[in-house]
Design a protein that fits this description.
The structure holds 2 protein chains of 2 kinds. Chain A contains 12 helices and 14 strands. By secondary structure, chain A is an alpha/beta fold. Chain A has 2 domains: about 1-230, P-loop containing nucleotide triphosphate hydrolases (Rossmann fold); about 235-310, 2-Layer Sandwich (Alpha-Beta Plaits). Chain B is mostly helical. Chain B has helices spanning about 1-15, 20-45, 50-60, 60-70, 75-80, 85-90, 95-115, 120-125, 130-135, 140-165, 170-190, 205-210, 215-225, 230-255. The chains are: A alpha/beta, B mainly alpha.
Chain lengths: ~350, ~260
C-alpha cells in the first residue's frame, strides 16, 4: 500500500469541506490541495476553522459535507486507514501524565503499526531527532516542561513515517533553540512527507513553509507562496529612511521627485537630529536610487540609511483577513438592504 | 488484534501504576477478610444452615458497590478531561477497541481481586483442617458456582462502571453515577420484588422481567450449584449492550 500511496501527486485533496456545529458553520466549503512533500502553513485568527479542518483531515471527526482524501484514501469512508498514514499532533498536545517518555513512544509505535522488531530502533531514532534521547527519555511526562512535551508530541507525529504530518501549533511554548530545531526538522521532512503546520508565529511559518493557506471565518481567503500573496494583497511598499531633515521639508522634497510617495510615519529626532521615516510607495516602483541621488544634491540633508522593507507575512495575513471581513460585512449589509427592500 | 493487545496491556500498565488501584484492592481485601472472619465466628458459636462460603458470597454486593466505581471511574472520564482520549483516537484504533480494552483491564482486575479471596478458605483449611471439613469450607462445587456467579455478574457491573465513566468528564461524578446505577441494578431489583404486582393488567407484564432481574435469586441458585443459562445471558448481553452504548458515546463525544 505504501508504494501505491507514493504514486499520488497530491497527498491531500480537500473539496468543499463544510462542518457545522449546531447552526454555526465552523468551515464553509473549504477546498485545497497539498502536493507530495510540500510544507504548507495553515493560518487564521482564533476560531477561523484551522483546528476543525485539521481534525477532519486526521480522521478524528466527520465533516458535515464535502470530501477529503489523503493519498487517495477517503477520510470519511476509511478513517482508521487514514490514521495509518497521517501523523497528527493536536493543539495543546495532551499526553498521559504517568508514563515515561520512552514507554509512551513505544506504546504509540505499536499502536501505529510499527513492526514489533522495529519499535525500539524507530523510537530511538525519533527521540534523537527531537532531542529527547538524553535525560528526557526516562522522565515521567507529567514532570516535563512545555517545550519537552511539545517535542514528545512531534516525535509521536513522525513516529510511523506517515505520508502526511499535521501539526497544530507545534512551536507554541518553545524557546528559540527549540524553534530552530523544529525548523530544521521540518526542513528535513521537505520532499519526503507532506507537512501541514498551523501557527500564530507568522515569521516561523514564512521560514518553514513553501505555501500558505489563510482561513478566516471558515473560508479560505488566500492561498499561495508568501511571494505570490505579497503581490496579491500588498499594494504599497515601504521604505525606511534615517535622515536629518524636518518632516515638512522632506515631504516637499518627496513631492518634487515623485508624486505618489508619501510619509507613512516619522519618529522624533534623536540626539544627533536624525529622524526615522517610513515611506509608502506603489508596488514595483524602485525609489531607492532616485531618493539617494536627490538627497545627496543638497548638503542640508544628511542621509544615514535607506532600506526597502519587505512586507511581512503578518501584513499579508492582516490584509487578507481584513479583506475577507470587509467582504462578509458588505455581503451582510447588502443582504440587510435586500431584506429592507422586500419589506 | 495486535493493536487491541497493545491497548489492553497499556490499560493494565496504567492500572498498575495508579494509586487508586491499590487503594481499591486494600479496601476490598480488608473488607472481605473481615466478612469471612465474621462468617467463621458465626459457625463457631452455634450450628448454622449456611456455610461460611455461602455467608461470605451473600454479601458480595457490598464490596461491588464501592469496588467497581473505584476501578472504573477514571477509565474514560479522566482520559476525556485530559484530552488523551482524543490523542488515542488519532491512531488507527476504533472507539470499540478502546472501550473493550478498558473494560477487559478493569474486569481482569475485578476477577483477580475475587480470586485473591480464595485465599481465605485456603488459609482456614491450612490452620484448622478439622473445622474446614466439618463446616464444608472447601465445598468445591459451591465455591465454583458461587464464584462463577460473581464473575458473570461482574462483567455487567464493570460494564455499568465503564458506561458511567463515558458520560462525564468528572471522575467524581462518574463514580457517583456508577454507584447509583449499581445500587439500582443490585438492590433496586431486590426491592422491586417486595412490591406485590397485580396478576392481571399492564403491570402484570412486569412480573416476569422483574423476576428475571433478581440478582439475589441468581446468587441463591448459583450457590446451590444450580447452573441456569438465563442469568448468563442476562448479565453478558447487558454488558455487551452497555459497552456498545459506551463505544457510541465515546465516538460521538470525541467528534
Amino acid at each position: 500500500m505504501a508504494e501505491d500511496l507514493q504514486d499520488c501527486a497530491n497527498s491531500v485533496v480537500v473539496r468543499r469541506l463544510t462542518k457545522t456545529y449546531g447552526g454555526i458553520r465552523a468551515i464553509d466549503g473549504v477546498s485545497f490541495r497539498i502536493g507530495k512533500g510540500e510544507v504548507v502553513g495553515f493560518l487564521g485568527p482564533n476560531g477561523a476553522g484551522k483546528s476543525t479542518t485539521m481534525r477532519i483531515l486526521a480522521g478524528m471527526m466527520p465533516a458535515t459535507s464535502g470530501t477529503a482524501h489523503i493519498c487517495g484514501i477517503s477520510v470519511a469512508n476509511f478513517p482508521e486507514k487514514t490514521r495509518n498514514i497521517v501523523g497528527y499532533m493536536p493543539e495543546n498536545n495532551p499526553l498521559p501524565e504517568d508514563l515515561r517518555v520512552v514507554e509512551y513512544l513505544r506504546f504509540r509505535a505499536r499502536l501505529k503499526g510499527v513492526p514489533a522488531h522495529d519499535v525500539k530502533r524507530r523510537v530511538d531514532e525519533v527521540m534523537k531527532t527531537c532531542e529527547l534521547h538524553r535525560k528526557a527519555a526516562r522522565r515521567v511526562i507529567g514532570n516535563l516542561s512545555k517545550g519537552f512535551r511539545q517535542r514528545v508530541g512531534i516525535a509521536d507525529a513522525i513516529l510511523s513515517n506517515p505520508n502526511v504530518i499535521i501539526m497544530d501549533e507545534p512551536t507554541i511554548g518553545l524557546d528559540p533553540h527549540q524553534i530552530l530545531a523544529i525548523r530544521k526538522l521540518v526542513a528535513s521532512l521537505r520532499g519526503k512527507m507532506s507537512v501541514i503546520i498551523s501557527s500564530h508565529i507568522l515569521p516561523e511559518i514564512e521560514l518553514m513553509c513553501d505555501r500558505v493557506i489563510i482561513i478566516n471565518q471558515g473560508i479560505i481567503v488566500a492561498s499561495g507562496s508568501p511571494e505570490r500573496l505579497r503581490n496579491e494583497f500588498i499594494k504599497d511598499e515601504n521604505y525606511e529612511v534615517s535622515l536629518k531633515c524636518e518632516p515638512d521639508e522632506f515631504a516637499k522634497v518627496l513631492s518634487s521627485i515623485l508624486d505618489d510617495i508619501s510619509i507613512k510615519s516619522v519618529s522624533n529626532a534623536d540626539a544627533e537630529g536624525y529622524r526615522d521615516y517610513v515611506l509608502k510607495a506603489p508596488v514595483g516602483r524602485d525609489i531607492g536610487a532616485v531618493l539617494i541621488s536627490e538627497l545627496s544634491k543638497d548638503t542640508r540633508y544628511a542621509l544615514r540609511s535607506l532600506s526597502h522593507k519587505k512586507p511581512s507575512l503578518e501584513e499579508i495575513f492582516m490584509a487578507a483577513t481584513r479583506r475577507s471581513w470587509d467582504e462578509v460585512r458588505s455581503v451582510g449589509s447588502s443582504e440587510k438592504t435586500a431584506e429592507e427592500d422586500m419589506k | 488484534m495486535r493493536r487491541f493487545i497493545t491497548l489492553f496491556c497499556y490499560q493494565l500498565h496504567l492500572m498498575a501504576i495508579s494509586f487508586s488501584t491499590y487503594a481499591a484492592a486494600f479496601l476490598f481485601l480488608s473488607f472481605m477478610a473481615l466478612m469471612y472472619l465474621v462468617g467463621l465466628v458465626e459457625i463457631s458459636v452455634g450450628p448454622s444452615r449456611q456455610s461460611p462460603t455461602e455467608l461470605f458470597l451473600s454479601i458480595f454486593w457490598v464490596p461491588v458497590l464501592f469496588l467497581v466505581p473505584l476501578i472504573t471511574m477514571k477509565s474514560l472520564s479522566e482520559e476525556r478531561r485530559m484530552g488523551t482520549l482524543g490523542t488515542l483516537m488519532t491512531t488507527p484504533v476504533s472507539a470499540w477497541q478502546i472501550v473493550l480494552s478498558k473494560f477487559l483491564a478493569c474486569y481482569f482486575f475485578y476477577v483477580i481481586l475475587w480470586v485473591a479471596t480464595l485465599a481465605f478458605p485456603l488459609i482456614t483449611a491450612m490452620y484448622m483442617p478439622r473445622t474446614a471439613v466439618d463446616a464444608r469450607i472447601f465445598d468445591i462445587w459451591q465455591i465454583g458456582t458461587g464464584y462463577a456467579f460473581i464473575f458473570v455478574s461482574g462483567a455487567m457491573y464493570v460494564a455499568v462502571g465503564i458506561f458511567a465513566s463515558s458520560l462525564t468528564r468528572s471522575t467524581l461524578v462518574s463514580g457517583m453515577l456508577s454507584f447509583c446505577m449499581l445500587f439500582f441494578a443490585i438492590i433496586g431489583s431486590g426491592l422491586l420484588s417486595n412490591f406485590p404486582l397485580p396478576e392481571s393488567g399492564a403491570m402484570a407484564l412486569l412480573t416476569k422481567p422483574a423476576e428475571y432481574m433478581q440478582t439475589f435469586k441468581h446468587l441463591e441458585d448459583f450457590s446451590m450449584s444450580i447452573m441456569d443459562t438465563r442469568p448468563f445471558f442476562f448479565y453478558l448481553s447487558t454488558a455487551l449492550l452497555l459497552l456498545s452504548f459506551t463505544s457510541l458515546i465515546t465516538e460521538s463525544k470525541n467528534a
